[in-house]
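To fix ideas, we now present one chain and its tokenised fold:
***
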Amino acid sequence: MGKRNRARKPQATTTNVTNPENAAPDSIGNGLAAAGNLVESESSSVLGAMAEKFKAATASYDAASEGQKKTASENFGNDIQALVGELKKLIEQNKQVELHTKQSLARQKQLEESVEELKKKVEAEKKELDKQSKDLLASKKKNAEDRAELAVKLEELKEQELDAESGFAAKHVEMLNSFEEKQNKLRESLEEKKLKLEKELEELNKSKQTLNEAEKTLLDEKLQQLFSKEAELDEKEIHLKQEKALIERMRRQAQLTDEEASSYKISLKNEIEKEFAYQISSLENQKANLEKQIAQYDQGEKQLLAKLSSFKELERQFEDTTPQEVAKQLKHYKQTVNTLRLQLDEKPSEQLEENFKQLKKTYEALEQKYNNANTELQQNKVQLSKNILSVIELEHIQQQKQVFEKHNQLLKVAVDQLRADVDDLVNKQQAKTAFPALLELDSKLRAKGRTESVPSLSDFAKELQHRIAWDANEQKELYYRIEDICLFIAGLAMSRLHILQGISGTGKTSLAKAFARAVGGGVKTISVQAGWRDQGDLIGHFNAFEKKFYEKDTLKALYEAQSPLYSDRPYIILLDEMNLSRPEQFFAEFLSKLELDPKDRLITLMTVGQANGPEKLVDGSEIKIPENVWFIGTANHDETTFEFADKTYDRAHVMELPRQPDKFEINKDLEPVTYSFDSLETAFQRASLKHSATVTKLIRDLDSSVFTLLLADEFNVSWGNRLERHLSRFIPVMLECGSDLSFALDHMLATKVLRAGKATGRYDTEQEDISSLIDALNEFWRTQGFNSKPEASLKLLNNELKKKSGL
């Protein structure tokens, strides 16, 4: 822009020389051009708002006649040049203000950094001073303890000297004699008892051969008791022998002569004095070192106090404001300065404003003339076009119109045919897609469902009991205990796999369906078949020849659960009679994937994905197991079913529904509701955080209990991180639903640890082991202060005890 300004000024000078009469108008043009160039060069600054005004003034000047330019030249030329000079000064002032602002910001940043460094340094020195003070107190405390210990030793030494002087040797001899007499008596009594026991053993061994099996068992127990008593007597005999040796050694020491006693006394005294002198000297050295350290600490404290005073002085200068507040104030001041500067720059001087008004009047007059002339020109053009049009042209236009109408008819027929061909191709393409059912779900389930937040878990459990109990559509009543509702809700928080056990007719299938209905969620019932062997039986398989995937209901349910309509609702996939086949085979991949992070729960459907496939498939070949999906399997245990493996039981939440639940008064006036999955998960997480300390303490006490040790030693049963993770998710939700800690822990132990096949129902355990385990379990319940008993666990153990005893 600067080069362009310099190029224009010589042209103005040349014009003044060659055409003196045009000197004044050209000075106005040069002034406007210079002002325009200056404003354009500073378009990013505060003068940018005046750019359009100068451009308009320049355009108005250029459009004016020579006479108007001459008339205006005498008044405006010099004023415009002066205005350009003032604008240059304003630009320089603006640059200086911006430079000053940048410097202020830099100083502010340096000040903030210095304040932060000073704060960190003061905090570090304060921590070091606290640590040194604690060490000094500890040293003083240890010094006092050492002095007290020395005083006690001196007292003991004095007592020993007094005992020696008063004849402690004679006392020891008397004590040794009495000990020896007692030992002889005990030895004689032990010999007699031993002979007596040996006779009893011989008699028992003789009578053992003539006893029946039950009597032999009692005899073995009595023999075991006798052997233990004999072992105790042997231990006592060994102990007495050791005491005898000790007494003998003390007797020899007591038989020293007076000379030896006095020499021993002198040597002992010298050793103690040396020891005391050494300890006193070491304590004095420690005292000197501590005094030096105290002096150093005092010096350091003074330095820190000086720094703190300087820091307080700095805080006083800022009037007790934080660096953040100072920065905020500076930012506010900067914004105020910029606003005032803009206002100042946008406000022209009085002379310039007057000149601008006159130029504006000139421009408006010229613009009015231009508009009038333009209107007249348009009217003339219209009249000319009317005169030019003739009858021949009108006929030609009519012919063109007929041709266009014919073309439109032909084009319409072609478009209809093309539309039919496209629809046919689309239908054929859809028929060839690998996932036609999933594509259909994409179009059906695009609407976003509206949901509500779950209330507190205690209210949710009570409300859910009534919502499950009454099905308004089928006019059907379903009664479940509040305990079972709490267990079901806590199981949802613990695991994505549930197993509902019990005899037929207890409402296992109905509970899963009724829950989905009560919370407004989705549900899909899958009837497991006896011949299922792999994953393809559950979700379907891909036919490479037909290039089509045979989509099973489970696959459709997984896809439906992540659609916009159901993505924020709980979704239940009900595996009815799950153990008709082996879940460890057809459900194996799901068991492994459910243990992973939600983003990694992907099931592979085909090796290579296809283009234009369903929207929710990952890479067109994998489907995600959504977080809002729970697999609930019902199980009957008879000759037609398989037992679940430990792999399945350990990962699942197991419930057994009672045969005849108690009835209650149902609230049938509750309005239908759709609860949010996210709010349910949030309630579970909130409960886990609230009761984290309680569960952590319970797990720690359980790990260190005799009950756990017996399980590990006698039953070879232990648990790892999975059970602790389940406890930390299950127990807090049970507590929030209104249940107690004893009931929740009892359910987990009965279904996870003491279930049949793990601690019970085994051939390699004895009756005594079960009895010990029952005692240990009751003792743990007592130490925890639980008000109720572990009824489910005791029921399992007592049944096992009856089986072992043959009752």
Summary: Residues 329 and 614 are 56 Å apart (CA to CA).
